[in-house]
Design goal:
Blueprint: H1 3-12, H2 18-31, H3 37-46, H4 52-69, H5 79-84, H6 93-107, H7 112-129, H8 138-146, H9 151-166, H10 178-199, H11 208-225, H12 231-234, H13 236-251, H14 256-259, H15 263-266, H16 270-289, H17 301-327, H18 335-350, H19 355-358, H20 362-374, H21 378-386, H22 388-396, H23 405-419, H24 421-439, H25 446-467, H26 477-485, H27 494-504, H28 517-529, H29 536-549, H30 554-560, H31 564-577, H32 581-593, H33 595-598, H34 602-624, H35 641-659, H36 665-684, H37 691-705, H38 710-726, H39 733-746, H40 748-753, H41 755-767, H42 776-793, H43 799-815, H44 824-840, H45 842-851, H46 855-866, H47 873-889, H48 892-897, H49 904-932, H50 944-947, H51 960-973, E1 979-980, E2 986-987, H52 1011-1025, H53 1027-1034, H54 1039-1050
Antiparallel strand pairs: 1-2
Length: 1052
């Protein structure tokens, strides 16, 4: 490999001229396919004569080649990535692994950025090769590097060890037994190295590389204890020394050199991170292995006893000492450390054995930890003014991916009042009221306003406990609101208005006694909703959420009616400015509650919402096309969750608007037209995440119209085009099935005359492949579509297509015949394909059954197991139609030749029994349709009485063991057999016929079939033209069955 040529290429990738860059990248892509390319990259990275920026470029390219080509086969890459990837030669791999370690050692002193990039490549190789025994020499090599005495070299060795032990992170002890010996062999020396060389009684705190090395040792411990606790580390002789190391790190004082830096810079120091990981490891041991949890996955009693009884009391004293010094501003703690300290205290509060250790300190923790952490600081105030969206996420939605001490404080407070309410609620409320009284005045200054906001935030956290009907504080709530909450609707501080609205949004279930309270709330919310100050957005949003809470209150709703349109316009404007599904949720509720008032503006609303969706969708589509090979770390991957949720919210609101126009068909057609650009974009850009909502829109529009509009036919064509391009529509068939069902129901006549559209449906069916990986749910969806196509298209459906439907179905039935009595949904759904075949082409269906040698099994299962237990109207009606078709469309000789000579009488008996079941099933379906339109009342149960037992120490603790005993007795009493059905048919540990869902608002392809008319005409036809067949079918019926047939025939 020509290294000088590669040097020129890497240099070219850094050029400003795009033509030069593209040419260099093209050359590199070609060169990367040649043997020796990776080794040449490492040689460039190791060279002392190469500049740092070129080394970094080579490191990034090397990392991407490893990540894309080391793991084989390359099955999880996108098509674009796979074009760039090629499998790295097996013979070259050992050389690359050796050179990679050597290169990392060589650049460890002068090229830290290259080390970070190469570490990613090392992780890929180790995760692929080490567990397979393909890099056994790595462990001794890593230990050798650590023992050199050179901290930079040792750092590389620790990187290797950390990645090696990372491979054990998600395994449990039974699946990693070799780890126990590795811990015995290597952990003692790691502990000595951490104590004597790295910590060294605090001498190295100003040495960043020592801190980085120590952090790697802490992460090694984290990896092996994260998912399960190795048996060796449960022993006292291992637990205590490692716990002491963590405590020593926590107690190490930071130097002035570190503390003099800005807080954001300070947090990045390796020794500060070591403190975080020391706290994190101790918390993980406590939370996962030394606590009582509902799952109780791990029961390490000996370890738990030592940790809780011997280690924890002393460690809590250290924690109390740390927070006391922090509160007095004598100690600085990073956000991450504060987060874990509070998580530790929260876990102690939730656990019965450890609660007494924290209980005496609760009020101190509340006043000197929780309250200060919830108080708005200068950064938060700046965020409120300059980045309102971020303020909303962090302070109103309480959403954050980082280690946030304020969110940990919220969690601690909520756990305390919910788990230990008898002890904690009164002092919490006392502190809140005291702060509010102390800071309230006619001229509130900013400092006082921040104190008030913190107290109100605490009130918001516990408000659900105060509003509980059995709460001893419930009667005082209205007075608290009048004195300390509602007056701040008129405050000049926007962040206080936000907090007031936040509290109000949690009071929707309160039946206020004062007649003036609700109007006061109404005026305050509207005032905040229309706030146009410089910081209006958070105020508007919190007001909108408060409005949503009271939207169903009759008096509130009546007061809102005159303002519905301007409020909706305001919500649309907010939705344009702020990407949140919260606003979409408010709009959706408004549409549902005020559909009549909003109907004149329905098309305008949908047009605006479609524009908003398109803006979001374009951004999402562009973000999805980024090239991951340009990233240096996984953290750089763009997170578009917020946009995605906002887009889904907009689509849901559009659907709600559509459903409000049930009696306005012209408007429904206009709304289809308005929605078309969004649907077209979704399908042309293949945005799979929105397929379900797209289908739901057209499912509802076709249901409302009761016919298939030209727009919907065009959407079907776009779906077909999308399927031809990607072949992935079959993978999302479950999303599209509701829309396709309505196309088959309301567009059957057009489909019979349109080869284009029926072919699209068949291609969609074909795209849903049947293979060994297909789940029964996927097969159910596929067979649901095929049976509906057979019935809707009928005889115009080609024999070739019918044969494929039947062959696909029977092939799976044959493979799954052993599960037919357990997998009821699959069994009935797959059988219905054949039953539909009996309706449109009985000769072909019988012939295909005989071809698979399944005729006897099929009729036995159908007539004796399935049909007698049907509960769905659809299944009963379908079987009746199939039996009638077999009788009327095939001569007796054909039935006998097909092997049905002994089954004809069973078919007649089955028909009679189905006719008995049909009226009841039809009545149940009609009842469901009536019930669906009625509002169900739910009785809310309180947890107040159950939360606190008579024993103060057992507050909030749940005893599941007694429940488990009761469950065990119940199961034991039912062990004699499975649930029994007609004809002794049973399912053992499987599904029931109730699992066959029948949507009361979805029309089926056979809804318009008049069963009684079909039975009457068929029986009369048999009586008049084929008396012998009639006698064989119905001659053996009993008196009641014959009377039922007679009544059906005489039915008008």
């Amino acid at each position: 490999m020509d290294v000088s040529m590669l040097l020129e290429c890497f240099s070219g990738t850094l050029e400003f001229d795009a033509n030069v860059r593209n040419a260099a990248e093209s050359q590199l892509k070609q060169a990367s396919k040649s043997p020796g390319f990776l080794g040449a990259c490492l040689s460039i990275i190791s060279s002392n004569e190469v500049s740092e920026n070129i080394k970094l470029a080579a490191s990034l390219y090397f990392k991407n080649e490893i990540r894309n080509g080391w793991t084989s086969p390359i099955a999880d890459l996108s098509s674009r990535q796979s074009e760039k990837a090629h499998e790295i030669d097996i013979d070259e791999r050992p050389i690359v692994k050796d050179m990679l370690i050597e290169t990392m050692v060589h650049v460890s002193k002068k090229s830290p950025h290259c080390i970070k990039v190469l570490k990613s490549a090392l992780e890929t190789i180790i995760s692929s090769d080490y567990s397979k025994g393909l890099w056994n020499e790595l462990l001794p090599k890593s230990v050798q590097l650590i023992s050199t005495g050179d901290l930079d070299v040792a750092h590389v060795g620790l990187i290797c060890l950390s990645e090696l032990f990372r491979t054990y992170r998600w395994k449990e002890n039974d699946g990693r037994q070799e780890l126990e010996k590795l811990i015995i062999d290597y952990f003692p020396s790691l502990l000595v190295y951490a104590n004597d060389v790295l910590c060294k009684d605090g001498e190295n705190v100003n040495e960043p590389k020592a801190g980085e090395a120590l952090k790697l040792i802490l992460k090694i411990y984290k990896f092996v204890t994260y998912n399960d606790l190795p048996f060796v580390l449960q022993r006292d002789e291992y637990l205590i020394p490692w716990a002491n190391l963590f405590v020593k790190i926590i107690q190490l004082p930071l130097t002035e050199q570190i503390l003099s830096k800005d807080v954001d810079v300070r947090r990045t120091y390796s020794w500060v991170k070591c403190k975080k990981w020391a706290y994190a490891n101790l918390y993980r041991l406590f939370q996962r292995y030394a606590s009582t949890s509902l799952s109780r996955k791990f029961e390490y009693g000996g370890f738990k006893k030592v940790y809780v009884e011997h280690f924890l009391p002393n460690f809590l004293q250290l924690i109390f000492n740390q927070i006391e010094q922090w509160g007095a501003r004598l100690l600085w703690l990073s956000d991450e450390s504060l987060y874990y300290i509070q998580s530790f205290l929260e876990q102690c509060i939730s656990q019965k054995p450890t609660w007494p250790l924290v209980k005496p300190h609760y009020e101190t923790i509340l006043e000197h930890v929780v309250f200060p952490l919830l108080r708005l600081n200068e950064d938060t105030l700046n965020t409120f003014v300059n980045d309102p969206q971020e303020y909303i996420h962090r302070n109103l939605e309480l959403w954050d991916n980082d280690y946030s001490p304020d969110l940990a404080a919220v969690s601690l407070l909520i756990t305390a009042v919910n788990k230990r309410g008898k002890t904690t609620l009164a002092p919490t409320l006392k502190l809140i009221v005291g702060i509010l009284q102390k800071n309230q005045s006619n001229d509130i200054q900013l400092n006082n306003a921040c104190n008030i906001e913190s107290a109100l935030k605490m009130l918001s956290c516990i408000i659900d406990k105060l509003t509980d009907k059995n709460s001893p504080f419930a009667s005082d709530l209205e007075g608290t609101l009048v004195s300390f909450v509602l007056p701040f609707f008129d405050t000049p501080y926007g962040f206080l208005k936000c907090r007031i609205c936040d509290i109000i949004s949690k009071l929707g279930d309160i039946d206020f006694k004062s007649p003036t309270l609700l109007p006061q709330i109404y005026e305050g919310i509207l005032q905040c909703l229309n706030d146009s100050s410089d910081t209006y957005l958070p105020i508007n949003l919190s007001a909108a959420l408060a409005l949503q809470t009271f939207i169903q209150d009759p008096s509130f709703k009546e007061a809102l009616k005159p303002s519905v349109v301007p409020i909706m316009q305001k919500l649309l404007s907010m939705s344009n400015e702020f990407e949140s599904d919260s606003i979409s949720g408010v709009m959706q509720d408004f549409v549902e509650e005020f559909s009549e008032e909003l109907q004149p503006f329905g098309t305008e609303l949908v047009n605006s919402l479609v524009q908003q969706f398109m803006k979001l969708a374009v951004d999402l589509n562009e973000a999805s096309n980024f090239d991951p090979n340009t990233l240096s770390s996984s953290e750089a991957v763009p997170d578009e969750t917020e946009k995605h949720m906002a887009a889904l919210g907009v689509l849901s609101t559009i659907i709600s608007i559509l459903l409000s126009f049930e009696n306005s068909l012209e408007i429904v057609k206009n709304l289809e037209q308005s929605f078309y650009p969004a649907a077209e974009f979704i399908l042309k850009t293949e945005m799979e995440d929105f397929y379900r909502e797209l289908s739901e829109f057209f499912e509802n529009s076709t249901f409302l119209l009761r016919f298939i509009s030209p727009i919907t036919w065009k959407i079907l064509e776009l779906v077909g085009d999308c399927n031809k391009r990607s072949g992935m529509i079959g993978f999302y068939l479950d999303d599209f099935l509701p829309m396709l069902n309505n196309i088959l129901v309301y567009g059957a006549a057009e489909l019979r005359q349109s080869d284009l559209h029926s072919q699209i449906l068949f291609e969609i069916y074909q795209a849903s492949e049947i293979n060994s990986e297909s789940s029964l749910d996927e097969l159910n969806t596929k067979f649901d579509l095929s049976q509906k196509m057979m019935i809707a298209l009928g005889t115009p459906l080609s024999g070739e297509v019918q044969t494929q439907f039947l062959t696909d179905c029977l092939g799976v039935i044959e493979a799954e015949r052993g599960t037919l009595k357990k997998s009821i949904v699959f069994g009935v759904t797959s059988f219905n394909v054949v039953i539909a075949g009996f309706i449109i082409n009985p000769a072909l269906a019988l012939g295909t059954l005989n071809k698979f040698i399944l005729l006897e099994m099929f009729f036995e299962t159908w007539l004796t197991s399935y049909a007698p237990n049907y509960t769905r109207t659809y299944d009963i009606k379908l079987s009746i139609m199939a039996i009638l078709s077999l009788f009327t469309n095939l001569p007796l000789v054909a039935l006998n030749n097909a092997g049905l000579s002994g089954i004809i009488s069973k078919l007649g008996d089955g028909l009679a029994n189905l006719l008995v079941k049909f009226p009841m099933a039809e009545r149940d379906l009609m009842l469901k349709r009536v019930q669906f339109t009625q509002t169900e009342a739910y009785n809310e149960t309180t947890i107040w009485d159950d939360e606190d037992g008579e024993d103060e120490e057992a507050e909030g603790e749940l005893d599941f063991e007694g429940d488990q005993d009761d469950i065990a007795k119940y199961l034991s009493s039912n062990n004699d057999g499975a649930i029994e059905f007609v004809n002794n048919f049973s399912f053992e540990g499987g599904e029931s016929f109730d699992d066959l869902e029948e949507d009361p608002l979805t029309k089926s392809v056979i809804d318009d079939v008049n069963v009684y008319s079909e039975v009457k005409n068929s029986i009369l036809q048999l009586q008049q033209s084929d008396a012998e067949k009639y006698q064989l079918a119905f001659g053996g019926l009993n008196k009641d069955q014959q009377q039922l047939l007679l009544q059906t025939v005489q039915r008008q």
